[in-house]
Structures are given as structure tokens and as C-alpha cells.
Amino acid sequence: MFLQQNRGSGRRRGRVRAAGVSLAATAALLAGCSGGGDSGRGDGTLIVYTGQAGDYQINFNPYAPARLDGDGTIFESLFFYNLTKNEEPQPRLGTEYAWNEDGTELSVTLREGVTWSDGEKFTADDVVFTLDMIDKHPTLNAVGFEGEATAVDDTHVKITFDKPSFLDGPYVLGRVWMVPEHLWRGIKDPSKDVIREPVGTGPFALDTFKPQAFTLKANPDYWDGEPAVKRIRYLSLSGNQAGADALAAGKIDWQTGPVPDIAGVEKNYPGYRAITVPMNQTVLMTCAEKDRGCEGPQTDPAVRKAIYHALDRTQLNELAFQSTSSAISPGFALPERDKALLSDGLGDRLAPMQPQVSEAAQLLEEAGYTKNGEGIYAKDGKAVELTIKVVTGWTDYITAVDTMGQQLKKAGIKVTPQQLSWNEWSDARGQGRFELLIDSLYQGPSADPFYLYHYFYSSETTAKVGETAQPNYSRWSDTRVDRALAALKGIDREDTAGRQPHFDAIQEALEEEMPYIPVLTAGTTSEYNAEKFTGWPSEEDLYAFPAVWQRPDHSEIFKRLKPAG
Amino acid sequence: MRYYIRKLGFYAVALWAALTLNFFIPRLMPGNPVDTLMARLAQRGGSVDPSVRRAYELLLGTDSSEPLWNQYLSYLAGLARGDLGISVSVFPTPAAEVIRQSLPWTIVLVGLATLISFLLGVGLGMFTGWRRGTWLDQLVPATTVLAAVPYFWLALILVAVFGSALGWFPLLGGYDVILDPGWNGEFLASALYHGTLPALTIVISSVGGWLLGMRNMMVSTVDEDYVLTARAKGLRERRVMTHYAARNAVLPSVAGFAISLGFVVAGSIITEQVFSYPGIGGKLLQAVQNNDYALMQGIFLVITVAVLGANLVVDLLYGLIDPRTRAGG
């Protein structure tokens, strides 16, 4: 119950938790919090709720895992990559970049006339200092940077790599936060400093910090002009449900996560709108590879594919996901964003929304399974009976697996949901001690399915059962996929024709084997106050991925918002 | 003297046993901090490249294959220096700092609430015991019912009535977020205002226990000979009640109070959670969810020391107050 903090997944999709505690918060916020907290209303302060449960502990080090904020707001990268569209990145501190032919040298032109918020000038030396710093400190190097940066002059930087690194571009350009050399030079161990007074080039600067809330203020000297939103306050509440209720009481202007009756947001929350963007794929993860120690019926591709065919996705979407999910491709390219990359060689471009029980039966029977007395398929005396692990309190997933249990029973497959605490569940997932579990696959630093394939299907990112896989939890790998991934690393991302055969090969291999059984593409829903602020991303103009916890996308949205009226 | 040495020796052993359990029990939990952190980052929609894991393993120092025994020794050595270690969930903040930030909130809230509840319970118990057989007896079942209501349920009802329906009190948080924490009137008033409902929850649910204990002791002391003697001397009723009966009847409650003070530090996790109160309960929850061993150990340590300390003080005081407890055999 209340012990299930809304941590990660909560933030991602905001699981609706059934908890007495949430009720309290509900009541609390519905009442309108008469005792204060009204601050910020009406003075143009944007109030956001990122899912923070409990107090904040000060940390504005852009390289610390427990940082509160700063990516793109206080500290900037060279470019901004829009996750929702495969388009040229937006210039931030950089204005242009170019790769050499073989992808080993990246030249970046920097913006002129940028100053740090303490008045010092931003130069190429700061960029080189930052890149050297993360290269030197493996603890800061969360982007896996392995290049060598040199300053050509004040506004030009050259970065060289040992091997073709086209696909490191979005990391180096979009996820490395430039820090001021004149202040950071003196920090002995940058991974252990919480940077109480952050100095950056970004559109916002830290205003005040308190354990219950912190506030960013507009940077008047920002190179792109002072942002129209003057203050952004981040609130801590007691959890997701509290977020939804704060929204109902008009206490927050933007939160990401489902609320009851998403379709009726405009009616139920006057002045507010909702936007749902498909981004992560809901899957049934299987421990698929026998050679790496997986056990159970799901190690047979026929069983995995039978499950794929037997699911009634329309019903799942309605019952578990408030119809915010959408179709999924068995090749795992996003049906909308990556439309151009969908392989023609796929049997199903999109997974069937209606169940195909007879096809499931046919697959199993061809693989030598026969129905036993209970109507469950079995082979060699072993029935196709599986457990699905799901986290206690993640009600949408629990509803989904319960529904799947009924759907699959019709196809002669027995699945039993098993609820676990989050820690236990993530441990089972990492170690490969599961038959099936429900989770979602996530995307990389730019709108390119390569990253997802690299994370979840590469032999480099997996491990034997009993060792921690990061994050290819299925333990499955395939030489066709590995070869294609290696080849893609050496091809410029602009060369779409050159990349397509490799994407085709990967998608076809995935459809054939299905180590992650496609369920649906999950939508991420945000609710925002359209009456108080204008300039929010819309389906027509999706200039950034609209999720308040998605850094640095949130900074792009903060930059473009304007107080209404 | 030997009595005190024996007592101190016993408490030293109890402390060591508690510290050892503090160390081992969190490590029996599934998962490890790096995996938890990684999964959390991934689920924030972030792209978690495999190299992130390597970076954080190095950062948090959890990939060491150091045997548990060595970790245990360095944990004890760290404690001796007053070093609780670095919190993983809010890395790189030391666990001691996290505890320092939230402990005062819990101590003041739960401490004051416990004190109020004790005074109220003992006072009412004295009267009901003195006037047994009158309508005052109804207080006993009434408060016991309130004590039987689960904490969080009571908290929810208070929130629904006084926060939601009547709007008299704020419903969340420890203070108004626009104010600067510090020793200024405005902030203190805000903290007091925000603390009222959580404190009320604790008082209402615990006052029944004090009342019942005091009343029953009172009932038996009013039948003692010295009370009869006092009455025979013609002392005023009030004086007999307070100076003769209540003074003796309150002894067990005082011991109980000292022990319950030890539990103040443990706070009341549920109450704090319901009210989003910035106390130690929320931090303990955070530590458990993130496999943050250092923070968990730190909080358990503070709780253990507080409980043991309170018990020790009571034990020693009892030796003074009542010489019989010191006698051998």
C-alpha cells in the first residue's frame, strides 16, 4: 500500500495506488489546503509535480544520480534532441555540428556571447573541461563518453573517437551538461559535491531551496532572451495520488501520470488539458535463452508467439490502460515516430488488436504440444503453465495480467500472476529469475530505435541467469541482431538508405523469436494548466516529449511557455 | 555500585546486539542499491545506457566483493567515529545529514504529542479513579475505543472533517513552503499550525492507554490505609487526591512514559506519511525502498539508542527511587 512509493514507474505512468494514505492526501488537497501553499498562484509561477514523494535533499550536481533538477534548465547541453520526432536537434550551446566520413571526428561550433550566470564568459575551454572531466571520472561518465576533446579556438571544439561513433552523438551533444571550468576546476571529487549554488548557462537558475519545495527563477541574461515564465516551483507531495488530487484542487500546473477518467480531463479539471504521447512499449518479458540458464515453457519461441497471438489487446487497453495505449509493432519500432523504419519483411506490421486463438493453437500444435485433460497445452508431460511477476500496487499492470490470464486460458495457456514488492521484482528481473514479467522497454537519447535494440537485444547488455543483466533481461541474443547493431554504429544517422537493411534484419529477427512479447505501446499522459500558461506541446506541434520528469525535455517546454493573459 | 555496573554492562551488550542486527537485517532484503537506482532512472523515462551502471557501481562502491565480515567491522569502526556512511538514495549526502534534517520534526511533533497525551491521560485518569462510579467512568470505554481505531484511519477522519469539510487546518506538510525555515515567528506559527492535526491524531489514539492505567492504579490506592488516614486527619479532598493518592498511583505511569519517550524517535511512520510530514518516518520509508543501507542503519541506530537510553535512565532512576529494586535476590 503506502509502502509502495511511486518511485520510478509511478513517475513514468503513475500507477494508481489503492492506499488509505493516498486518500488522506486526496482529502487534503481537495480541501484546497486552506492553511497555506497558496503562494505562487496568480504571480506567474509555474508549479510542477514530478512525482517526488517525501522531502528533497539538496543536490544540483548535473552528474549526480540523485540530482533534483538542472538538466537543460540550469545546465545546458550543446544540442537538444526531441525524443518524439526524428528531426535535426535544436541548437543550444552549440550552433552546428558535423561528423567526418567514418564517424571518428565530431566538430562542433559553439554559440558566441553566452555567459555563465555569474557573469563569466562561456568558451570552448569549458566544453573541453567538461568532457575531460567525465572522461577522467568514470563515476560521472553516465553517457559512456570515450572521446578526446580539443578546443580549436574559442568557439570551435573537435572531438575524436577511436572507433566509428555516430550513435554516441546524441549522448555527447544532447546529454552532457556543460559546467563552468572556473568554478569546477577546484572541486576535488565532482561526483561527491552536491553543488549547492549551481552556476550554469541555462534559461533558469536556482532561486530558493527548501526540503518541501525548490524554486527556479528565470535567467535575465539568457542568450535566447529571458524566459517568459519567471518562476518554477517543484513541490513534494506524498505520492502520485496526491499529485492527481493537487491537480483537481488547481494546486499544480503540470504533472505527468494518469488521473481517473483521462478522457474527461477538460471537463473534470476546468482549465486543464491532457496530452498522451506513445513512447515506451509494454511487454511481457520472458527469460528466453536456455543457454544462459533460463528455465520454463517460455524458452520455446512457439509458446512466446502463441501468447502474442492469443492476447486481446483492445480489451487490455480498455480494462487496464484507460485506452491510452496504442498499437505496437512486433519489430519494436514505434508505429508513429519510426513509421519510415518499419520493415516490409514483417509478418505483422502491427500486432493484432483482436485475439487470434486459432493461430496460437496452430503454432503450439505444430511445435508438438497437445491439450491435456484440463484443456492446457502440454509437451513431454509438461503443461504450459507460467507465472507472471508484477509489482504490488501497480494497479494497471495487475489488471492487465489478470485480464491476460483469462484471455490466455482460452488459448490453452495457463498464466498465474504473482505480486512482489518492487525491490524483489527488480531483483528477479535483473537476475533472470522469472518466467514472465510485465514491464516496459524504454527509448534512447534521440528518436532512433537503435538505442532500444542496443539496450534490450544486444549480447553485450545481457548476462547469465544469476548475474545482473543491464538491461537485456530476456537473456536472448542473436548473431543477426548483433551484426546489424555493430554495422549501424558505423553508419551516419543521416544515411537512412544505408541503415534500413540493418533495421529490417533486426525487426524480422525480433518478430521470429519474440524474447519480449509485444503487448501495447504505452502512452505517457500529462495534465497541464492551459488557462494559466500557453505554448504547451500539442499533437500538431510536439516539440519535446511532454513529461515533467523527462529531463531535458521539460526545459524546452519551460522555455516556450508563456503566462496567459 | 555493583548494581550500576551490572546494569551498564547489560546495556552495553544489548547495544552491541542491536547494532549487529541493524547491520545484517537490511542486507537480507532482496535487491541492491545500484539496481534499484538504475531501475528508478530507467523508469523515469530516462535512457539508461549500460555504462550508467558501471558509473554508479563505482560511485556507490557497492560492486566490491568485500566479504560481509569486513563490511561489518568497518561499519562498527565507522560508528565508533560517529560516521554513519553515505546515503545511497540521496548520494552523496551523508546519512547523518539526512537524519539531522528530519529528526527534529519528528522529535518535536511526536515528543510534544506524547507529553500532552501523557499529561492529559494521567490527569483525567486521576479524576476518574477518584470519582469512580460516577458518569466520569464513561471516559474509559470512550477513550479505549479511540485508541483501538487504527492510527491512519483516525488521521484520515481528522483530515476529512477538519481539513476537507471545515477547512480549519492545512492538510499536508510541515510548514508553508513560501516561508524560510528558521527561528522566526511566522515560520514557527506555520509549523505549529501544520503540526496540529498530526499531533491530535497521536494524542487521541494514545490518551486512552494512559487514562486506563492511571485510573486503575488510582482505584487501588484510594483504598490504601494512608489515604484513609489522610482523610481522617481532615485534609481537604483535593489535597488527599493529589498529594496522597495520585502521587503513589502515578509511579508506574512515569516508568511507562520514560519508555515511550524512547519510541518518540521512531516517530509514527504512518501519521507522517498521511500528512506528508517532513519527519524521520518518511526517510525510513525512502531508505527501505532504495536499499539505502547506510540511511536505514543510521535511523535504526538512533531509534535503538533512544529506546535503550530511555530504559537505562528509568532503570537507574528506579534504583534511586525504590531501593528494593537494588537489593539482591
Uncertain spans of chain B: none
Number of domains of chain A: 3
Q: What is the CATH superfamily label of the largest domain in chain A?
A: Dipeptide-binding Protein, Domain 3
* β-strand amount of chain B: under 5%
Shape of chain A: globular
- The value of Rg of chain A in angstroms is 24 Å
How would you spell out the order of helices and strands of chain B? HHHHHHHHHHHHHH
Stretches with pLDDT under 50, minimum 5 residues of chain A: 1-41
| Class by SSE composition of chain A | alpha+beta
Outline of chain B: globular
- CATH class descriptor of the largest domain in chain A: Alpha Beta
* Rg of Cα set of chain B: 25 Å
Oligomer: heterodimer
Q: Can you summarize the main beta sheet of chain B?
A: none
- In total, the number of strands of chain A is 21
Please work out how many helical segments of chain A DSSP would assign: 16
End-to-end Cα distance of chain A, whole Å, is 42 Å
Helix content of chain A: 25-40%
> What is the second-level CATH architecture of the largest domain in chain A?
Roll
Structure explained in plain terms:
The complex is a heterodimer of chains A (565) and B (329). Chain A has 565 residues and is an alpha+beta fold. Chain A has three domains: 23-67 and 197-277 and 524-563, 3-Layer(aba) Sandwich (D-Maltodextrin-Binding Protein, domain 2); 79-184, Alpha-Beta Complex (Dipeptide-binding Protein, domain 1); 280-523, Dipeptide-binding Protein, Domain 3 (Dipeptide-binding Protein, domain 3). Chain A is built from 16 helices and 21 strands. Chain A has helices at residues 7-13, 20-30, 124-136, 169-174, 181-184, 240-248, 265-268, 301-310, 313-321, 357-366, 395-410, 422-431, 450-457, 479-489, 496-513, 553-560; strands at 45-49, 79-80, 90-91, 94-99, 105-110, 148-153, 156-160, 204-210, 213-218, 231-235, 254-256, 272-286, 370-371, 377-379, 382-383, 385-391, 414-420, 436-441, 516-529, 533-534, 562-563. In chain A, the strands form five sheets. In chain A, strands 8-9-10-1-11-19-12-18-16-17 form a ten-stranded mixed sheet, with helices on both faces. A four-stranded antiparallel sheet of chain A has the order 4-5-7-6, with helices on one face. Chain A is globular. The two termini of chain A are 42 Å apart. The model of chain A is unreliable at 1-41 (pLDDT under 50). Chain B is mainly α. Chain B contains 14 helices and no strands. Chain B has helices at 2-27, 33-43, 50-60, 68-80, 95-130, 139-148, 151-165, 185-221, 225-232, 237-249, 251-264, 269-274, 280-289, 293-321. In chain B, helix 9 runs antiparallel to helix 10 (237-249). The longest helix of chain B is centred in the middle third of the chain and has 37 residues, at 185-221. The radius of gyration of chain B is 25 Å and the shape is globular. The two termini of chain B are 16 Å apart. The mean pLDDT of chain B is 81. Classes of the chains: A alpha+beta (565), B mainly alpha (329). At the A-B interface, helix 1, helix 2 and helix 12 of A face helix 2, helix 3, helix 5, helix 7 and helix 8 of B.
